[in-house]
Specification:
By secondary structure, this protein is an alpha/beta fold. The chain folds into 3 domains: 170 residues, 3-Layer(bba) Sandwich (FAD/NAD(P)-binding domain), CATH 3.50.50.60; 154 residues, 3-Layer(bba) Sandwich (FAD/NAD(P)-binding domain); 71 residues, no CATH class. 25% of the residues lie in helices and 24% in strands. A hairpin with a 4-residue loop joins strand 14 and strand 15. The radius of gyration is 22 Å and the shape is globular. Its cofactor is FAD. Its main location: mitochondrion.
């Protein structure tokens, strides 16, 4: 396996070593952030990163790309340019974990070993779990902001939309960025109004949840937004099939506990945006690290594997109860920075992840609700009313957070807003 690194890079060769002090599996936000932190602490060549893809995307920007507010290219970088100095990029993918031997196997049969490992494999999009969805994505009217291959299509579909049902779905399964489907719906409303065709459209947000959004604190303001925009919210609806020939979306009706009732509902669509169910990557699902759901089984506070103490998790691949967002990764990194360092010194991990997650809910082309929370409730940072749509929250989403991601998070410098929150709470007004 070989790859090209520009002369200005100082990353080491991808084939120079078979054993690493620390092996990081995954080169997304969590993987790069973890590798960057420890590449600065450990001797040169001690850190390896297993990542097969050449392109790295700022996925939180996809909602804006799908709304014509950013370009896809602005959210893409070459992975080779992001690998931290003195780390080794193994451009391959893991097919087998053998943690009892502190080893893994790559596609092609090559084995790597490690003293410590961070698993940051993310969550995979599973359009294949919805009958007909993969085929439908290649037809007119069907798109998804979750995929770099279909996000630009969403904007084009909205620009050419002439009338009918525009349906946005949320699955009955784990999903990355749970607010993304309704954000896309709100932005579509703004575009259609600007085009003068909103009266010809019926916007529907169909969610498997029994309410518009998970964290309770933001339900009322989001219901108000949906009402003002005349968006019909269908709860307890899970998309199970797309018939692109008849342009029909079929939903199973769920009970209050999220279980199928046996009833279905079919809706014709002119535009269908699919929020795909997600799962852990295949190699992780079938590994000793996984729980019964397939996600990495970790201690929810220390982020340490429950079975293998020299292994930690970061990001969407874990079974922690937090929402799967890029913002969560910042607090994950803060936690493992301390805990993995302690384990490397032969000590017990003591730092605790606070469950932080954030979702800037864009509700128009220039305003947003800045939702910050953990499983217990709101965990807001600013002294302002974050439940009210505002231009400053949109400015943060559009301009500040991308810069913070590229220059802070993936370089291992941004550990989340926890310290800032302690300060601003002194000025918080309810």
């Amino acid at each position: 396996m070989s790859f090209t690194i520009e002369p200005t890079m100082k990353a080491t060769s991808a084939v120079c070593a078979k054993h690493f002090k620390l092996l990081v599996v995954g080169g997304g936000a969590g993987g790069l952030g973890a590798a960057s932190k420890f590449a600065r602490k450990l001797p040169k060549g001690s850190v390896g990163i297993v990542e097969p893809h050449e392109d790295h995307y700022y996925q939180p920007g996809f909602t804006l790309v799908g709304g014509g507010l950013m370009t896809l290219e602005a959210n893409r970088r070459k992975e080779a340019k992001l690998i931290p100095r003195d780390a080794t990029w193994i451009q391959n993918e893991v097919v087998l974990f053998t943690p009892t031997q502190n080893a893994l196997t790559l596609k092609g049969g090559e084995d790597l070993s490690y003293d410590y490992m961070v698993i940051a494999m993310g969550a995979h999009l599973r359009f294949d779990k919805i009958k007909g969805a993969l085929e439908a994505l290649e037809t007119s009217g069907v798109c998804s902001n979750y995929s770099p291959f279909h996000v630009e299509k969403h904007f084009q579909e909205v620009l050419t939309f002439k009338g009918g049902n525009a349906i946005y779905t949320y699955p009955n399964a784990p999903i990355k960025c749970a607010g993304a489907p309704q954000k896309a719906c709100y932005i579509t409303d703004s575009i259609l109004r600007k085009r003068g065709v909103r009266d010809d459209a019926k916007l529907i947000y169909a969610t498997s949840l029994n309410r518009i959004f998970g964290p309770e604190s933001y339900i009322e303001p989001l219901e108000k937004v949906a009402c003002e925009k005349e968006i019909e919210v269908k709860t307890r609806r899970n998309l199970i099939e797309v018939d692109s020939n008849s342009k029909t979306a079929i939903f199973e009706v769920l009970d209050v506990d999220g279980a199928p009732t046996g009833d279905t509902e079919s809706l014709e669509y002119s535009l269908l945006h699919i929020g795909p169910p997600c799962s852990a990557p295949k190699a992780l699902r079938s590994s000793p690290f996984a729980d019964k759901t397939g996600f990495m089984d970790v201690d929810g506070e220390t982020l340490q594997s429950k079975r293998f103490p020299n292994v930690f998790g970061v990001g969407d691949c874990m079974n922690t109860p937090n929402a799967k967002t890029a913002a969560s990764v910042s607090s994950h990194l803060k936690t493992i920075d301390k805990n993995l360092s302690q384990v490397m010194l032969g000590k017990k991990p003591k730092s605790k992840y606070d469950g932080y997650a954030s979702c800037p809910l864009v509700v128009s082309r220039n305003s947003a609700i800045l939702a910050e929370f953990n499983p217990e409730g709101p965990l807001e940072t600013t002294p302002f009313n974050q439940k009210k749509p505002s231009r400053w929250a949109y400015f943060l989403k559009r301009h500040i957070l991308p810069a913070l991601y590229w220059n802070g998070l993936i370089k291992g410098y941004w550990n989340g807003p926890g310290t800032m929150r302690k300060f601003t709470r002194m000025f918080k007004s309810e």
